Amino acid sequence: MELNKQSDWVARSLRSVWHPCTQMQHHETVPLIPVSRGKGAWLYDHEGRRYLDAISSWWVNLFGHANPRINAALKDQLDTLEHAMLAGFTHEPVIELSEKLSALTGHVLGHSFYASDGASAVEIALKMSFHSWRNNGHADKQEFVCLKGSYHGETIGALAVTDVALFKDAYGPLLRASQTVMSPDARLAAEGETAQDVARRAAADVERLFIERGDKIAAIIIEPLVQCATGMAMHDPLYLQLVRALCDQHNVHLILDEIAVGCGRTGTFFACEQAGVWPDFLCLSKGISGGYLPLSLVMTRDEIYQAFYSSDVTRGFLHSHSYTGNPLACRAALATLQIFEQDDVLNTNKVKAARLTQALQPLAQHEQVRNFRQRGMIWAFDAIDAPKDFSRRFFATATEHELLMRPIGSTVYMMPPYILSDEEIDGLAANTLAVFNKVMAG
Ligand SMILES: *Cc1c(COP(=O)(O)O)cnc(C)c1O
Fold first, then answer.
1. How far is CA 257 from the centre of its chain?
2. CA nearest 288: which of 41, 62, 77, 43?
3. Is there an atom of ligand 1 within 6 Å of 291 CB?
4. What's the CATH class of domain 71-342?
5. Cα–ligand 1 centroid distance for 118 (angstroms)
6. What's the average pLDDT block by block, 10 residues per block, for the chain (442 residues)?
7. pTM of the model
């Protein structure tokens, strides 16, 4: 490890790397942190400081950095097959992964189509939905429905079903119009209303739209249980049951975007299991490769697959991507799924989650905090009367307390890897409280 190089790396990065989701000028005041290595839940900079990765490096890392089991699988795969094209050829990692994922849905979603990033998985689901309707003689089903506050990625097609004002305002003229329905966000409960009441109200909004123009609508896309990017807006599973029934009744596809909430994040492997429903298309990415390599996929039903099965090329699904089904990424995913089995992760996480929820009680009861909420391995709360630039200040202050955290607006959240020790859980809670108090004091 080289010492005293930190400032050099920062200067060189700012000169040549255009960082994502960043107004670059902010780095005149907000620190840019060059990471030299990672181990477990920790990232280390070039000066030996460490940061607990409380947001799993943008929600991707499940079992820590430099995980020995995933590393070993990748090293073996690297010496076997790094990549081969998936048109005309196939290979063991992609076959095994598709079979394992199919089994996890009880073989309801038995066909997996691969890409590399989450936004592309969303694009694929949208295209597949439209094209399958057309192949079945419903070419006028071309519209998509999304939820208020939804986030499904930032390519132009995915952005069209993303309801984030900042992006919509900037790129609106490039986007295809979509219909937006009420969010089932439990925080919208009126006096005396329960989360289930909000779910019913939000489903009624979907029903109104389906009655009005269901024959024009191809699909509704939903991030089940937790709308993450809008600020960890959580809803009752009842909403998914009601929308599934409406989709069946009005012949509309249900696309569930489990890119962030899948892979055990909400407590079950797939979030939709908590509602007891399966979608027509399920998008996975982020955690599926353990946070190692870009990998995304769309799982779908046999009826959809059959709609494309024909001797006619134009009836086949038309989407190609150079690195589709990359063997290294699939092998990382297989190693990740194996850890779920070997370590009984979903049950172990329940114990970890209960401990962190307990440790966060001083924040849950803090007089400047409202809507403390948790589902599975996601925690969030909203700051009351947060000071200006709350999010950026919180990030900077957190780095001084060995934490990597990036609030969304005035919502502070935690989405840690599933490997925190008791000591790390308690430290995370204590440091978050200290950072929050400092930032709120101005
Ligand atoms: C991150 C995310 C995406 C986009 O994934 P990328 O890999 O960043 O393109 C889509 N949907 C949801 C719910 C996400 O959290």
1. 8
2. 62
3. no
4. alpha beta
5. 4
6. 76 96 92 96 96 98 98 98 98 98 98 98 98 98 98 97 93 96 98 98 98 98 98 98 98 99 98 98 98 98 98 96 98 98 98 98 98 98 96 96 98 98 98 98 91
7. 0.98
